[in-house]
Fold this protein.
Amino acid sequence: MESPVCLAVLTTTDAEEKAETLARGAVAARVAACAQISGPVVSVYRWQGAVETASEWRIQFKTTAARYPALEAYLLEAHDYDTPEIIATPVVAGSPDYLRWVEEETSP
C-alpha cells in the first residue's frame, strides 16, 4: 500500500491561547490529525507599508493533501488575522504507519 500524500501546514498567531484554540479546532474538525505549537517566536514583516516586529506562536498541522482545502477554509474562518500565514509543505518521506495514521485521523 502506498503512503498517503501528507502535508505539514504552518500558521502563526499572536497569543498562545489563540494557537491552542486553532489547533484544537482543526483536530476536532478532523481537518488535521495533530498540531504542534511552538513559541513565542519573533516575526519581522512588512504590513501596510511599515516594518513590524511581533511575538507570535507557530502552529504546525499534519494533514493530507485531500483535506488541505478544508483545513485552509477552517483557518481562514477561525483566524483573527486579516491575512493569516497559511503555508503547506509536502511531506516527501515518513514512517508509513504515521502517514496512515494522519490519513485515518483526517477522514471525514
User: Anything to note?
Assistant: The first strand starts at residue 6 and ends at 13. The chain has a mean pLDDT of 95. The two ends are 21 Å apart (CA to CA).
